[in-house]
Amino acid sequence: MSDVPPIHGIIAYPITPFTQTGIDSERLAGLVDSLLAAGSHAIAPLGSTGESAYLSLEEWKVVVDTTVKAVGGRVPVVVGSSDLTTAGAVERAQYAERAGADAVMVIPVSYWPLSDREITQHFTAISDAISIPIVAYNNPATSGIDMKPPLLNHLFETVENVEYVKESTGDIQRMLDLRELSSGALPFFNGSNPLVLKALQSGASGWCTAAPCLKPEPVIALYESFAAGETEKAAAIYEELLPLLSFIVAKGLPPAVKTGLEVLGEPAGDPRLPLLPLESADRATLESILAEV
C-alpha cells in the first residue's frame, strides 16, 4: 500500500475545455479551482467526462500537467490513464506519476474480449511500473469489458497498487458483493450518478461525478450531510439533484455538461467529434433542470 492519504468523498470530474486549436488550459485551471473552492475532495481529470479517448497523447499530457498545477497539492489528483494497449497504459501511468498525480484510474479497453488472466496481467504490468495507487474502473457500457466483483477483489488482493475500485454498472448488488468479498477492506467509489444515495448507504467511500461542474454546492452538501449522519437532509438533496444526475448520464456526460456550462454562462467549447452538443430540445430541458436545482 502507498503512503497517499485515503481518497474519499466527492471525486470531481472536470470536462476538458477546447479552443479552436486545442486544450484551453486557462479555462481548465479555472474550472478545477472552482471545483476545489466548492469543497471537492479529489479531482479526476481524463475520464469519460474529460473526453480522454478523443485526445492525442500530447493533449492528454497537457491536461495532466494543467490539472496537477491547478490543484497544487490541495487534494488528491486521480488521473485517468487508460489505453487500448498495456504499453500505452503503462506510459500514461508513469507520466501521471512523474507529473505529480496521487493515483491513476484504469479501465481496461480492448477490441477483443479479455479474459480474467489478461485483465490481471494488464493491471499487474501497470502496477509494476509505478508506485502510486490504482483505481480499477469497471464500466462495461463504455469499455466492453465487465470486471465482476470476484475479479475486482482478486486484483485488490494480488496486485500491489490496486487499492480502489470505481464501480459504474449501476448495480448496487455489486457494491454489496465487493464489501462482502473483501470483508469491508476494499474501498469502492460510486460511478453511477443516479444511484449515489444507495451507493453511499451500501458503503461507498466516494462518488465519482461530473455533476459538480454544473451544481457543485448541492453535490458537496449531499455527501457531507450523509457523512454527518443527516440522512433526511441527504435524501432531500438527492431528490432535488436526481433529475440533473439522470439527465447528464442519459444524454452523455461531455455533451450534457458542456452544454450545461454554456447555459450557465461558462462556455468550454464543444465536445470533440464525433460527439456533438445537445440538440435544442434537450438544451431547453437542461436549462429548466438547472434553473430548478
Note the main attributes of this structure.
293 residues; alpha/beta; TIM Barrel; globular
Short description:
The protein has 293 residues and is of the alpha/beta class.
Outline the structure in words.
With 293 residues, the protein is of the alpha/beta class. It has a single domain (9-215), classed as TIM Barrel (Alpha-Beta Barrel). The protein is built from twelve helices and eight strands. The chain has helices at 25-37, 57-71, 86-99, 116-129, 140-143, 149-158, 172-181, 196-201, 216-227, 231-250, 253-263, 280-292, and strands at residues 9-12, 42-43, 78-80, 103-106, 134-138, 162-167, 188-190, 206-209. An eight-stranded parallel β-sheet has the order 2-1-8-7-6-5-4-3. Helix 1 packs parallel to helix 2 and helix 11 packs across helix 12. It starts with 8 loop residues before the first strand and ends with a helix. The mean pLDDT is 96.
